[in-house]
Amino acid sequence: MQQLPPQPAYILHSRPFRDSSLILELLTPDYGRIACIAKGARRDKQRRQRALQPFTPLLVTLLGRHDLKTLGPLENAGQPLWLKGRAVYAGLYANELLVRLMPEGESLVSVFAAYQVLLQQLAELSGDSSEELEPPLRLFELHLLQALGSCPELDYCAIEGAVIRPDRVYRLTQEEGFIPVVIPPGQTPRGADFGGGQLLQVAQWLAEGAQCARGEGGRGHPLADAKRLTRLLLGPLLGHRPLKSRELFRQVYSAD
User: Fold this and answer.
1) For 41-80, how does the pLDDT look when each residue is reduced to its tens digit (9 = 90+)?
2) Given Cys at both, which of 80, 222, 242, 249 links 89, Cβ 3.0 to 4.6 Å?
3) How far is CA 139 from the centre of its chain?
4) The whole model's pTM is what?
5) What torsion do the CA atoms of 6, 34, 147, 195 make, to the nearest 10 degrees?
6) Cα atoms in the Cβ-side hemisphere of radius 13 Å centred on 191
7) Which helix (H) or strand (E) holds 255?
C-alpha cells in the first residue's frame, strides 16, 4: 500500500462510516483538502478518537493509491487550540468554507498558513462578542478568495489597465472585476459599488494582515467594506445552500 510522507493537518469535518470508522476531511499544506478513512476511530474512544478533534494540529500519515486514503499513524503536532464561546462557531464557519470551496487534492499552502493564523487569533479571543470575530474572519475570507482566484486585485482596475484611483467609484463585476462607474454626486457607494479609497484601504489592511487583525472597526477602518466585499464574492461560490455553521450560530445566540 502506497504511503504518503507525513503531513501537518487539521480536521475540517468528520462523519461516521460503517460500524466503527470515520471519514475525515483534512486540510494539509501539500495535498490541500483531502479525505481519508480513520478505521476503528469510533471504537477506540480512549486514544485515537480523542486525538481526532477539530482545531488540533496533527501530523498524519496517509495510505493508499485511491482518492479516499486510509489514515495511518498520527500524532499531535502541538497543543490543541481551545476556542471559547462564539469563537468556536467562527472556527466551524472557516472549516465549512474550506470544505465547500476548496478543490480536493490541490495544494494551496497560503490557505493552510492563513488557517493557522486564524485559529491562533481566534484562540486569543474571549468569545463573548461577535464583533471581535469580524477582523480575523474577514482577513481569512479574503486570503481564501485570493488563493482560489475569486477575488480581483483590490488596487488595480484591469479594464483600464491602471491602478485604482481613490477619487473614483468602482463596481464589482463577476466578469471584469472592478470597473469605473459614475454615481450621483453626494451618493455613498453601496451594493456592488466601492469608492477607490475604500478598496485601497482594504488592500492595505489585507497586506498588513496579522498586525491589525485585532483592531476594532472604528472610523476609517475598512472592516465594513471588507465584509460587504466578501459577501458579494462568496455568494456565487456558495450558491443557495445555507451554511450549517451560520445557522447553528444563530440558533445558539439568537436571544443575545
Assistant:
1) 877 665 565 678 899 999 999 999 888 899 998 898 888 7
2) 249
3) 9
4) 0.91
5) -130
6) 8
7) none
